[in-house]
TrEMBL record:
Superkingdom of origin organism: Bacteria
BP-aspect Gene Ontology terms: fatty acid elongation
SMART domains: PKS_KR (SM00822)
One family name in Pfam for this protein: adh_short_C2
UniProt record similarity statement: Belongs to the short-chain dehydrogenases/reductases (SDR) family.
Membrane-spanning residues: none
Domain Ketoreductase: 7-196
Family annotation (InterPro entries): KR_dom (IPR057326), NAD(P)-bd_dom_sf (IPR036291), Sc_DH/Rdtase_CS (IPR020904), SDR_fam (IPR002347)
SUPFAM superfamilies: NAD(P)-binding Rossmann-fold domains
Keywords noted in UniProt: Oxidoreductase
Protein's name according to its UniProt entry: 3-oxoacyl-[acyl-carrier protein] reductase
Coiled coil: none
GO MF term set: oxidoreductase activity, acting on the CH-OH group of donors, NAD or NADP as acceptor
Length: 247
């Protein structure tokens, strides 16, 4: 498939997990990939993995809470590949704790990475895309931003904020040919999830009508849809990839 043939896609948090799955899926569909991630070694390794498979890829160290570094990520994409067609704001962290135990630093860290990071990425991408008259921005929210999860007042707040950011930016940018959509994944089998206790995973699975978690590639396929012309008349939408959880 070549749904993104000739296009350049930037993926933050792209060195592992869902981010790397999206980058790989995009590359397999013809895109040139720019990986932005905080871990330079892992980011370079991911880019080399893509290159070994015959794809064009660039690794850029990027802390998404830094305006300078996010702008530099966009600059690197333009300097290397000449355009930015797709930008995925995926970088994220967790600092779970109950309200009583959560520190202000833990709250701020999660909001800064998820919400501020997505805003900085959306702004940088939009500046390039408005000049081109087209582009697709995909923000990764979470089902936690829809229903709220115990121990995640920081994460739920940030992920809900991403939905508001997505809808507001979609309205601002639509007349420029730039689309902005979001994905709310549920339980996805990443390394972080696999490290959870079995009873915690079992409790989450019990809430899912389909009876299983998602593979990262299943989220990546939805991101591909939103990044490609298959969703050309969609903007400001939030797509749940949850197996029916919390419907």
């Amino acid at each position: 498939m070549t749904l993104l043939e000739g296009r350049t896609a930037v993926v933050t948090g792209g060195a592992q997990g869902i981010g790397l799955a999206m980058a790989t899926t995009f590359a397999e569909n013809g895109a040139k990939i720019v990986l932005g991630d905080l871990d330079p070694g892992r980011t370079q390794a991911a880019a080399e993995e893509l290159k070994a498979a015959g794809h064009e890829a660039l690794a850029v160290e990027c802390d998404v809470t830094s305006e300078e570094q996010v702008n530099r990520l966009g600059d690197a994409a333009l300097e290397t590949f000449g355009r930015i067609d797709v930008w995925v704001n995926n970088a994220g962290i967790t600092r779970d704790a109950t309200l009583r135990k959560m520190t202000l630093d833990q709250f701020r860290a999660v909001v800064d990475v998820h919400l501020q990071g997505s805003w900085l990425g959306t702004r940088r991408a939009s500046l390039a895309m408005r000049e081109a008259g087209s582009g697709a921005i995909v923000n990764i929210s979470s089902i936690s931003g829809k229903v709220g999860l115990v121990g995640q007042t920081n994460y739920s707040a940030a992920k809900a904020g991403i939905v508001g950011l997505t809808k507001a930016a979609a309205k601002e940018l639509a007349h420029l040919g730039v689309r902005v959509n979001a994905i709310q994944p549920g339980l996805v089998y990443t390394d972080m999830v696999r490290a959870l206790r079995e009873d915690i995973i079992a409790a989450k699975l019990a809430e899912i009508p389909m009876g299983r978690g998602a593979e990262p590639e299943e989220v990546a396929n939805v991101a591909l849809f939103l990044a490609s012309d298959l969703s050309s008349y969609m903007t400001g939408n939030v797509l749940e990839v949850t197996g029916g959880r919390h419907i």
